[in-house]
Fold this sequence. Notes:
Chain B: Residues 117-326 form the ABC transmembrane type-1 domain. By secondary structure, chain A is α/β, with parallel strands linked by helices. Chain A is 38% helix and 23% strand. In chain A, strands 6-7-8-3-9-10 form a 6-stranded mixed β-sheet, sandwiched between helices. In chain A, strands 16-17-18-13-19-20 form a 6-stranded mixed β-sheet, sandwiched between helices. A 4-stranded antiparallel β-sheet of chain A has the order 2-1-4-5, covered by helices on one side.
Amino acid sequence: xxxTGPAATAPDAVVRVDDLRVSFPIMDADxxxxxxxxxxxxxxxxxxxxxxxxxxxxxxxxxALMGLHRGSRARIxxxxxxxxxxxxxxxxxxxxxxxxxxxxxxFQDPMQSLHPQYTIGNQLVExxxxxxxxxxxxxxxxxxxxxLERVGIPEPAKRINSYPHEFSGGMRQRxxxxxxxxxxxxxxxxxxxxxxxxxxxxxxxxxxxxELRRDLGMALILVxxxxxxxxxxxxxxxxxxxxxxxxxxxxxxVLAEPEHAYTRALLDAVPRVEVSRAQRRAQDRADRVERDxxxxxxxxxxxxxxxxxxxxxxxxxxxxxxxxxxxxxxVRGGLWxxxxxxxxxxxxxxxxxxxxTLGVxxxxxxxxxTLSRMVMRLLEPTxxxxxxEGRDITHLSERALRPLRRDIQxxxxxxxxxxxxxxxxxxxxxxxxxxxxxxxxxxIRNQVCELLERVGLxxxxxxxxxxxxxxxxxxxxxxxxxxxxxxxxxxxDEPVSALxxxxxxxVLRLLSELQDDFGLTYIFVxxxxxxxxxxxxxxxxxRKGEIVEMGDSxxxxxxxxxxxxxxxxxxxxxxxxxxxxxxxxERVQGRAQEQATV
Amino acid sequence: xxxxxxxxxxxGLLLLAVVTMVTFWIFYVLPxxxxxxxxxxxxxxxxxxxxxxxxxxxxxxxGLDQPVAVQFVEFVRGLLFGxxxxxxxxxxxxxxxxxxxxxxxxxxxxxxxxxRLPVTMSLAAGAAVxxxxxxxTVGVVSAVKKGSVFDRIAMSTALVGVSMPIYFTGLLALxxxxxxxxxxxxxxxxxxTEDPVSWFQVMxxxxxxxxxxxxxxxxxxxxxxxxxxxxxxxxxxxRAKGLSxxxxxxxxxxxxxxxxxxxxxxxxxxxxxxxxxLTEKVxxxxxxxxxxxxxxxSNDLPVVIGVTLLGAVFVxxxxxxxxxxxxxxxxxxxxxx
Lengths: 598, 337
């Protein structure tokens, strides 16, 4: 903890947090201590990253900086000083004068953080006039247009009259940032500003924050669960865990030579885009052999059923053959309105052999989920064919599909909403067996318990309800549920995107081990490039419903043929401050060139 | 925007057509299925103790022995173009939207309803103003001061308000406020155009009584909606801008809270305009509701049908107004326009 104590006090610190403690009283239980003695300082114009997994207290800290715990049950001690103002001691009026004026905040979800019923102009003007009551409407409006222009909203004078729903996610986040800039704050506090955004949009927003900070001399606090997101944007980083700062220091030092074991574990868990599928697999297997040895079991590499990828590409029929698959949705224009066609997926095709993993990567709206739903036959394709084990299943009836449901299973993105909260875990997993005709309750129970242990849970969890489990555990339950019928193909739709990095790493390992043990075939759908590379033998890159590039994962990543793939790779955050700055410079240059040619 | 309006209007007309059909079916077809003869039905129209000749004449005049389809066409034609009713030598004209002819009061139904409409409209408008202002105010204060003494008292009162019927609160009010303590005058309805002051004095108690029931419901709804809105991210954004709490609540939180309430308000006003039967009866107001209940008691079927249809028209109209207001209240609705 030596490195976490307050550093030499800089006289020009614009944010100074000393021994901050925040706790929440809970009825009939001990208080929850969300932040336990946090200290840091941010010099004027500096940039600080606060990194931690869910529950680490990072968001509680950012709310404390804004004094937004006022009126809640939170108990706060220690001192928080923003621009010379003691936040904890300030009156409500002083606090309001500080918010938005000295320190402005950008929130996580731009879909939710703008008022849906007022134009963005109205909301921006309001942000200015609350701190400049003498300024006229016209002045404030001119300033709003200027601010929108500054964050790269095209045609700001026109767009100022638009409502938030008329902007895309990335544009909305720019609007939120523009709102933060209205009063030239000394500090911009961005709490997970890019978590809800696509990679390319994330890169744009991070680039923008970096540029604004440099141009306007603002200090920046970037809060994130992802070390790679802050790597290229901050000078100093605070790593938080369970309400405490476990490590604090220069970002290069922390990333290169982490002192604390937790930081090291966190860094190890972050999937790296430069690590190939083979490397990852070898590492996972080595770790497993090690672990089993320690536990007194002996696992020979030969025992892995799928140690060498089976199903060589020539000759035998692939497990799954997809040709020219398209899905059209009718977009209705309201009551009696004319409908128009929207092609969610257009002409997708691939072969997938037994024991292999196909990674499908793309941004939101690229059609990757629709594609997996068609393969699963949750949707009936509009055009094209799906063959499973050589059999055309494209237009099979629901009844004819039933035996097939055993062979193709799915793991969904959100482990919180994909489990029925009123059904015990054992029942949730066992139901599939019952549906498929198993009558013996004892047998069902045995199988479920065995599987629970296999996915790293305990058989004693059989009668518990989903709310008793963490996100990672729930995803294990979801995997067990998919496995119970011994499927041949498992479609994982963003299985780890809702999880913390360390949990994500564990779930990825589990999936890899299960593939070894049962010779499973996966379709792995995700937006995270690094994750997809590490689990996939082949990768399909999707954009606007079409597969723009497909091939060996190593080839696609190391020698991308399509411009889109290249731009995706350039936008992916990397865990190296200098590399990440270099990529940023490249992006900025690329954009400048684009501007010049237009 | 124009297509949106036209589409909504079309939907409203379609709905009215369906309501007309169902109403017709209930009053003309259902009795037949239950085994009521044309004579029996005629008896319902003619009133008590008719002679067989009078019955036969009525059956003939109303075409009750005709096939159902013919009767429906007749009924719709009456609605669209008017009808004539002949009594021996006398012929009565029932003008364009002819809702039928009452053989008990010996007059077409519509003018009678229109006569009573101002009473019902006064009642509905005044009560709505009171219940919206009262309910929303109480709801907002309760939500902002959640868990306070005010909140608890208000919500308990609201619970009582929701669970007490008009004929209870109304009679209590009459007994104590009017007869015991004489706080309100005892008098008959005075049209607004004749004497606004008396109109207001007479209507005040019915307004409060009717509003009490609805205000309770609106207060609970507003409180729940407000609490939900206050948890929204955009409220946090508003606070993070440095806005005062008053601005946060009245500008940012109130509008989304009121959005769903506008919908319920449309329905409620429509319903009350179709006749607030209990309130009108309790306070002896001669409105549409009272007319309907009298008609039911005296078996005056044409009046019952007429009031039902008119009530449907009001509900449809109010919903139409709400639909048209909605894009103004919530800009997101405009996407589909």
